[in-house]
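Structure (tokenized):
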């Protein structure tokens, strides 16, 4: 207030009325016009977090911090990132859902994920599920096939027909095509007990390619927790961050998001590396890097 009034009244008088030292006012004024480097850095980082929150509103401070580090090389600690986001009032806008209690034990195929296997290479265990959403009132089903080793989406298929079996089978064809490139690798394919996943058409070719089937227990989405979690994030991100609106073909918008997911989205479970970075750093020498997600 003194600064605002100092143009029309003597500073001495204003300081006397406010009960503060004149030197304190001038020190404060100097600090205001010559902020410390630490203050400048804080203001810059606040602007950075605000910018990234506007671009990716579905995520919280840890992910935003990892994405900023990935894109800009700016390294900040998580407590500092939390401080910045708390100052801005930034919070994740995504909603997370509780799962139902476990259902009855095994049906159709055993749940091999419950054997506490050590997943230590690509293509060792692929998890699959379908997620549904609406764009401009049109219903879409998206079938995903994800490598549990590095969370890379290896294949996906999209359909606007409810219950379209070809959505699953098209993605499976792409997965089998990828498996043919690595015949030396045995693979487990895990899914829920949905009608298509349990069908003869879906499963009859798998043994020919050394693909072993595994299934969750009935009514137990926690048996495929990684895929269920990714489904939740995908639906949040494609609308909140990627703003899929149907102005462009939805298939192209979803494909662009899958590319982002594999190459530019840091993942907590990978110590905030992207799936591609993790593969390039840790894949065995006999595994050819740079496999793109199918469509």
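Design, position by position:
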């Amino acid at each position: 207030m003194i600064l605002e009034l100092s143009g029309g009244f003597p500073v001495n008088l204003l300081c006397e009325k406010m009960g503060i030292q004149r030197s304190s006012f001038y020190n404060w004024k100097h600090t205001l016009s010559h902020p410390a480097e630490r203050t400048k850095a804080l203001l810059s980082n606040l602007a950075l977090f605000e910018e990234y929150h506007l671009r990716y509103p579905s995520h919280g401070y840890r992910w935003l911090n990892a994405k900023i580090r990935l894109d800009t090389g700016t390294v900040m600690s998580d407590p500092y990132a939390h401080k910045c986001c708390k100052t801005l009032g930034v919070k994740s806008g995504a909603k997370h859902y509780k799962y139902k209690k476990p259902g009855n034990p095994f049906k159709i195929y055993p749940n091999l994920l419950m054997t506490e296997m050590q997943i230590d290479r690509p293509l060792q265990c692929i998890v699959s599920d379908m997620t549904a959403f609406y764009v401009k009132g049109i219903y879409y089903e998206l079938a995903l096939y994800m490598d549990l080793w590095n969370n890379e989406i290896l294949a996906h298929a999209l359909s606007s027909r409810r219950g379209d079996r070809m959505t699953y089978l098209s993605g499976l064809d792409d997965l089998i095509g990828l498996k043919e490139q690595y015949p030396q690798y045995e693979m487990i394919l895990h899914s829920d007990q949905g009608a298509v996943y349990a069908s003869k058409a879906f499963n009859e070719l798998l043994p020919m390619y050394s693909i072993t089937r595994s299934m969750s227990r009935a009514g137990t989405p926690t048996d495929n927790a990684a895929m269920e979690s990714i489904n939740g994030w995908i639906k949040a991100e494609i609308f909140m961050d990627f703003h899929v609106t149907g102005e462009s073909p939805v298939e192209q918008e979803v494909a662009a998001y899958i590319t982002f997911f594999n190459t530019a989205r840091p993942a907590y479970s990978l110590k905030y590396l992207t799936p591609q970075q993790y593969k390039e750093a840790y894949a065995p020498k006999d595994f050819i890097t740079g496999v793109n997600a199918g469509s």
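Reviewer-requested clarification: The first strand starts at residue 125 and ends at 135. Residues 289-295 have pLDDT under 50 and may be disordered.
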